[in-house]
Amino acid sequence: MQKWRDALHQAASVCGWHFIPGSEYEYKFIGEIVEDVLEKITHEEIDEFRKVSNDFLEEIFDDLEEDCDDLEDGAKEIFDDLKEGVKEIFDDLEEGCDDLEEGAKEIFDNLKEGVKEIFDDLEEGCDDLEDGAKEIFDDLEEGVKGIFLNIAGFFDS
Q1: What's the structural domain count of the chain?
Q2: What residue ranges carry the coiled-coil annotation (predicted)?
Q3: How far is C-alpha 146 from the geometric centre of its chain's CA atoms?
Q4: What value does the mean pLDDT take over residues 56-68?
Q5: Is 10 part of any domain?
Q6: Quick one: average pLDDT of 81-89?
Q7: Is 138 within a domain?
Q8: Which of 19, 31, 34, 114 is spaced 20 to 30 Å from 131 by Cα?
Q9: pLDDT in tens, 105-143
Q10: Residue 131 is part of which domain span?
């Protein structure tokens, strides 16, 4: 805390410019400060400052340009990797769709064949049933045949 107090005391003791609000315009006061500073520094100091500043700025711009190039290269590499990954995904999807289509076609063909077999078996079973019913009907006596025909007629109407 003492260091802080000493620093404040030292800053308050410095002689210099003091602006009193209302005594003059601020821009005039600032102009007087600038003129005083320019009188105190030499052109060699200004030139040296400019050279150091320009060298420093040039180094910063070179570093920034290099960083931008690295960033651009990295972004291009990421983009290329993403593009390749997306292409692989689409290729895999296309292959999967082809496999799915083949599988669905195979299932459909199997179902179609199975349904055809069922209908063939049903048709054969119906034919066998019809043949059996005819055989039973043919074996019946004439009076019983009439009863069955009357009963069948009753259900047809």
Answers
A1: 1
A2: 54-81
A3: 81
A4: 88
A5: no
A6: 93
A7: yes
A8: 114
A9: 999 999 999 999 999 999 998 988 888 888 887 877 877
A10: 21-156
